[in-house]
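Subject: design request, 146 residues
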């Protein structure tokens, strides 16, 4: 006759309040996940289930594939970030300096295609057009272009 193993089980609240023995497994019947107990941490450490909504903290993801869209509150990247699809930033913070606005790029910014600016443009440094450095832009020239 086969053996049956039955683990302690309970709701998420019951599991969160429970501190089990070192190495003990408990079953969260609401989230349908196992929790590994360490003998001192209330609630233990829940294992991620394939259908569970989980919060990742201090995790390194290697080549993740995300389908169905992604919403991120804040992003900070120090390396190269590749994005293949359309990226929309809905933050409406206006730029007043090189370090403000909805998108702040500390280094250079390369654009391989057309660039459309829907608002005002302020250039603090030199402007180069077609390889020619434009050092002064007269008011008469600006008026003629308007």
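Subject: RE: design request

Done. Sequence follows.
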């Amino acid at each position: 006759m086969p053996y049956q193993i039955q683990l302690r089980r309970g709701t998420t609240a019951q599991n969160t309040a429970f501190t089990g023995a070192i190495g003990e497994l408990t079953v969260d019947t609401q989230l349908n996940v196992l929790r590994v107990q360490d003998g001192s941490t209330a609630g233990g450490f829940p294992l991620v289930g394939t259908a569970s909504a989980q919060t990742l903290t201090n995790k390194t993801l290697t080549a993740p594939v995300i389908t169905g869209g992604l919403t991120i509150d804040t992003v900070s990247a120090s390396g190269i970030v590749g994005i293949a699809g359309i990226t929309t930033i809905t933050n409406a913070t206006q730029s007043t300096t090189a370090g403000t606005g909805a998108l702040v790029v500390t280094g250079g910014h390369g654009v391989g295609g057309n660039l459309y600016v829907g608002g005002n443009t302020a250039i603090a440094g030199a402007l180069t057009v077609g390889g020619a450095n434009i050092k002064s832009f007269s008011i008469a020239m600006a008026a003629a272009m308007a």
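Residues 139-145 form the longest helix (7 residues).
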